[in-house]
Amino acid sequence: MVVVGRSKVVGLPTATLLANHGARVTVAHSETADVVAEARQAEILVVAVGVPHLIGPEHVTSDTVVIDCGINVTTDGVVGDVDFERVQPLVAAITPVPGGVGPVTTVMLLDQAVTAAERLAAAAEPPAP
What we know:
- By secondary structure, the chain is α/β, with parallel strands linked by helices.
- It has helices spanning about 10-20, 35-40, 85, 100-125; strands spanning about 1-5, 25-30, 45, 65-70, 70-75, 75-80, 95.
- Helices cover about 35% and strands about 15% of the residues.
- The protein has a five-stranded parallel β-sheet. The protein has a two-stranded antiparallel sheet with strand order 5-6.
């Protein structure tokens, strides 16, 4: 598994979470000597760098599953970090942008907000007599 991007918001937490669950994770970033070579080794490629269409056909193989976490607003609209149109026909699966990871992020954020509110409410209740 390869995570391209080492931000504190997506890249590093994703890599840490996956590693904590037993995945062998490589984190590639702007200082990685050969990002293309690292990415091509991935069965699962998670991309979160904030650069529109950074990942192209040269980064993937037919066995790659691509998870594009990038959200970039351009003159052409919202696009991901992966050049979806060029990469999609070449890979096993790919998440679109918009409409891929974004809705999952929203659901998880709402789930965590509800959990936090429930914990606060439970802590504020007086103990039973």
